[in-house]
Write a structure and sequence with these properties.
The complex is a heterodimer.
Chain A (H helix, E strand, L loop, with lengths): L1 E8 L4 E6 L5 H16 L8 E3 L10 E7 L2 E7 L5 H19 L4 H6 L1 H9 L2 E2 L2 E2 L4 H28 L1
Chain B lengths: L1 H12 L4 H10 L4 H16 L4 H16 L8 H8 L4 H14 L7 H12 L4 H14 L2 H14 L5 H17 L4 H11 L5 H17 L8 H10 L3 H14 L4 H25 L5 H14 L4 H19 L5 H11 L8 H14 L4 H13 L15 H12 L7 H8 L9 H24 L3 H19 L4 H22 L5 H6 L12 H4 L18 H7 L22 H16 L9 H9 L25 H29 L33 H5 L15
Helix pairs in contact in B: 2-3, 3-4, 4-5, 4-6, 5-6, 6-8, 7-9, 8-10, 9-10, 10-11, 10-12, 12-14, 13-14, 15-17, 16-17, 18-19, 18-20, 18-31, 19-21, 20-21, 20-22, 21-23, 22-23, 23-24, 23-25, 24-25
Classes of the chains: A alpha+beta, B mainly alpha.
């Protein structure tokens, strides 16, 4: 099971935070800071897996992360998940973002975090891996985007009528 | 009233959306808290509006603020309102907000039950999907109890998209409301065989999680999972199932035995992947890891598989991925430590190939091989065909052919003529004898030049003393070679006694280089004018003649030859097929020398050798032949070298980067540098296989290009 998915930049600013276990907002911020602290001091060529910080469950949980340019993608998982599998999932996630945003960069995540959540929702549900096939994920995301477009269009026309 | 609406609309035009909020916060870095507090006030106003679109927009912004650490639970009721919108867009926003901040003590959660139930039965699959996703994050015991049945029904929905989500959320439902497990379990089991792979994966996921908590109850599912494991190609599913078996096997020992076969197949598939994975950078590390496995896999066929794999990936594409051939030779030598391998010939052929084609490495290779020959007694424990003693074949040949690089040729010559050599398989002895002659020639050359007159004669005497043992060998090849060479040496000794200088002439016997020939070389040799390869050389015998001349089978019953099978016009296809078969055979051997089947056959028939019980020396301490470097040293050296290169590069890049202005940079994997950056440890000149000269230059076709030994 996945306990949390975090995306933050090289200065520790959160760009997405998804917790599958309830914490207060303060604790969530602390966890983000602690995770950033643990992950940012790692050298570029060391292993991508490390033990979770105390706040998030300690040695029972692992942090699996990847560093892409200015962003860290971190998954906090328990022992039922395969580390390499999660590492692959992060790659799928990033590639999906790239497809959906066309050459994704940090600014896309900053201004459209709701879209990122929608994409993530097609991959992980309730802390369990839902879908790993990129094409399948994108297909569902596109279908829902279409729905959204058709609804807002209708909305706009009625708004003008008011 | 109308005016109010118009005024409202105008106000709405100035509502910030999410992007505006984000931009605003970024523009107020100094007074961020104050700015956000203003925004929250605006949001509160928006939430008082009747307009659901406005509320949705406000909730969307609140979700963002929650990520920054602001408590938004005061808006819980509004979130529920937005969840209840009939429009998918707003519904989605509502459920997302709920999943981020609702929890068990959120009191409005009770209000959501009916809405969720409505959404679960919506004709729009995305409404259902969004409800399931949201619910999975904030499900409480009450919600679980109330909605369990609805969700169970959804497990059999027509759309796989819904089935997948429903199956997955059941785990959360079980966690909060354990009583739901029993009624739901049969349907969950059914889902393990759902036609849609996504649904199947979800079911596997759920049951694996359940089984981790309580392995005993799921032992009965083991056969079903076994079937899934052997039939599934989805790696995620395989990983989960294998982990599950890991939890089940301690409870059922028989399961462990049954698992060996499929797991071995999986490992084979993984090994096959290595082929594509290998690169210049990671080859040494990958091989190091594989060597560890080889050490652990004592006495199994798996070990041989690994060995073959290591050699395959190293030698693929003409050794493209090897940056340090000394390292490769030391790997090959380490592999000779393996007892009971059936691939000795593979290692031997690799050593030969590398020594011949990588000129720069010859000195090193020769030194290694000489040490190997010296310590041959450690290797002769395994006399099996293709056993590790095959490497001695390679070692002897390399020392003989490149004897000019030997430090102490006399010592090596002595090692090759030890009586113990006669216990080696015949074909290896034959090589020893032949190359002893080559070494003899090298030794003579060095000794004749020196002032010590008797040394050369002593060498000859050594040969004369030791060769007779081989002359008496049961192996014909060994016998013949030894006899020829013995006579030659006796003649040389006579000349030496007359004080004639013989070294030059003796070395002329072995002058010239044997280079590997390209497999296509034969094809490229143009057929000379007037030669028809398809014409019969002799007239085929007539029918009556062939019957009379059939030799009487004396020793063995031969099958009667069919004279009809000979036609003057042979089938084109038949010709082509034979040509292919011939080419194949030749292509497999880089020297275009047919592998001598005769010596091997003789070995087979020679009585007693195979029946001698072989004592397996179980060396628990890895065989460390003195004088041979461990391949790990090379790995360390290589890493240090690369680090240094990288450090130097970084300094250069840092200077460049300071001058560049950073804009909207492209996302890229800030991983290690590309292939081209790796400079190999030493530049190797790999001798490419020879092609017939006139293919390149168009000269006369009569030259024999297969062997180019220039005669003096």
């Amino acid at each position: 099971m996945i306990r949390a998915i975090l995306i933050f930049n090289n200065h520790g600013k959160p760009r997405l935070s998804k917790f599958y276990e309830h914490y207060t907002e303060d604790t969530e911020q602390q966890i983000i800071r602690e995770t950033f602290h643990l992950v940012s001091k790692r050298d570029e060529n060391v292993c991508n897996f490390l033990e979770g910080g105390m706040l998030i469950g300690g040695s029972d949980y692992k942090l699996i992360y990847r560093h892409y340019a200015t962003l860290y993608f971190v998954f906090c998982v328990d022992s039922s998940e395969s580390e390499l599998g999660i590492l692959d999932l992060i790659q799928v996630f990033v590639e999906t973002l790239d497809k959906c945003f066309e050459n994704v960069c940090e600014l896309d995540l900053i201004f459209h975090v709701d879209k990122v959540h929608n994409i993530l929702a097609e991959m992980v549900m309730g802390g369990m891996v839902l879908e790993t096939n990129m094409n399948e994920i994108i297909m569902q995301v596109d279908a829902q985007n279409k729905m959204e477009k058709s609804e807002t269009f209708i909305f706009q026309s009625t708004r003008q009528d008011r | 009233m109308a005016l109010k609406i118009v005024k409202g609309s105008i106000d709405r035009m100035f509502d910030k959306n999410l992007q505006d909020l984000v931009r605003g916060i970024r523009n107020h870095k100094e007074d961020e808290a104050k700015y956000i507090s203003t925004c929250i006030d605006e949001i509160k106003q928006e939430l008082k509006q009747d307009n659901i679109a406005v509320k949705a927009n406000a909730v969307c912004k609140l979700t963002y603020l929650q990520m920054l650490g602001y408590d938004v639970s005061w808006a819980a009721f509004n979130i529920v309102e937005v969840m209840s919108s009939s429009k998918f867009t707003y519904k989605r926003i509502g459920y997302l907000a709920a999943s981020q901040c609702f929890h068990e003590s959120t009191d409005v959660i009770m209000l959501t039950t009916n809405q969720i139930r409505k959404d679960l039965s919506s004709p729009n699959q995305y409404d259902t999907g969004v409800a399931l996703t949201g619910l999975s994050c904030f499900v409480t015991p009450d919600l679980a109890r109330d909605l369990a049945n609805d969700i169970m029904t959804l497990m059999s929905h027509t759309k796989p998209y819904i089935r997948k989500k429903a199956v997955l959320i059941m785990y959360k439902v079980f966690l909060k409301y354990p009583e739901s497990l029993r009624p739901a379990f049969p349907r969950l089991k059914e889902k393990l065989e759902d036609p849609d792979p996504g649904v199947q994966s979800a079911a596997v996921n759920v049951i694996c999680e359940l089984a981790r908590r309580n392995p005993k109850n799921y032992l009965s599912l083991a056969p079903l999972f076994f079937k899934l494991m052997t039939s599934s190609t989805n790696n995620w599913v395989l990983i989960k199932i294998i982990k599950l078996f890991g939890a089940l096997t301690p409870l059922e020992p028989r399961l462990g035995k049954k698992l060996i076969e499929p797991l071995t197949n999986l490992i084979h598939r993984a090994l096959d992947l290595l082929y594509g994975m290998v690169s210049k950078k990671n080859l040494m590390e990958i091989v190091k890891k594989l060597m560890l496995h080889v050490d652990k896999a004592e006495g199994t066929t798996y070990r041989d598989e690994l060995l073959t794999k290591i050699i395959d990936i190293c030698s693929q594409s003409n050794y493209q991925y090897i940056t340090n051939f000394e390292w490769y030779i030391s790997i090959l030598v380490e592999l000779t430590r393996l007892e009971g391998t059936r691939h000795g010939h593979l290692i031997a052929s690799q050593m030969l190939d590398v020594a011949i084609r990588v000129k720069a490495i010859r000195i090193f290779a020769v030194a290694q091989m000489a040490t190997l020959l010296d310590n041959a007694h450690l290797l002769t424990g395994n006399m099996q065909r293709n056993g590790i003693c095959e490497v001695l074949y390679a070692a002897a040949w390399i020392c003989g052919e490149f004897s000019e690089h030997l430090e102490n040729p006399m010592q090596t010559l002595e090692a090759m003529l030890r009586p113990k050599v006669a216990t080696l398989p015949g074909h290896i002895q034959a090589v020893y004898v032949q190359n002893a002659a080559k070494l003899f020639s090298t030794v003579l050359k060095s000794q004749e030049g020196s002032t010590e007159g008797t040394a050369a004669q002593e060498t000859s005497q050594l040969m004369i003393d030791r060769l007779p043992l081989f002359v008496q060998s049961a192996n014909l090849e060994v016998q013949e070679r030894a006899s020829c060479i013995l006579q030659l040496v006796k003649y040389i000794q006579k000349l030496q006694q007359k004080e004639v200088e013989v070294a030059e002439e003796v070395s002329a016997l072995f002058a010239g280089e044997l280079n590997p020939v390209a497999p296509k070389a034969q094809k490229k040799v143009p057929v000379p004018e007037g030669l028809d390869l398809d014409a019969w050389i002799n007239e085929p015998p007539s029918e009556s003649e062939s019957e009379d001349e059939q030799p009487k089978a004396i020793f063995a019953k031969e099958e009667p030859k069919h004279s009809r099978s000979r036609h003057t016009e042979v089938d084109e296809k038949e010709l082509a097929r034979r040509r292919e078969a011939r080419k194949q055979e030749q292509a497999n051997n880089p020297f275009y020398i047919k592998a001598s089947p005769s010596s091997q056959k003789v070995y087979q028939e020679s009585p007693g050798v195979e029946h001698i019980p072989v004592v397996q020396i179980d060396l628990t301490v890895p065989l460390k032949v003195p004088g041979l470097p461990m391949s790990d040293q090379y790995l360390k050296l290589e890493e240090e070298r690369r680090q240094k290169e990288r450090a130097d590069k970084k300094k250069k890049e840092k200077k460049k980067r300071k001058e560049k202005r950073s804009g909207r940079g492209r996302r890229h994997d800030s991983g290690p540098e590309s292939e081209e950056d790796i400079t190999p440890a030493h530049m190797v000149d790999i001798v490419t296989e020879e092609m017939p000269e006139e293919y390149h230059l168009n000269i006369e076709p009569q030259k024999s290009l297969i062997f180019e030994r220039s005669q003096k």
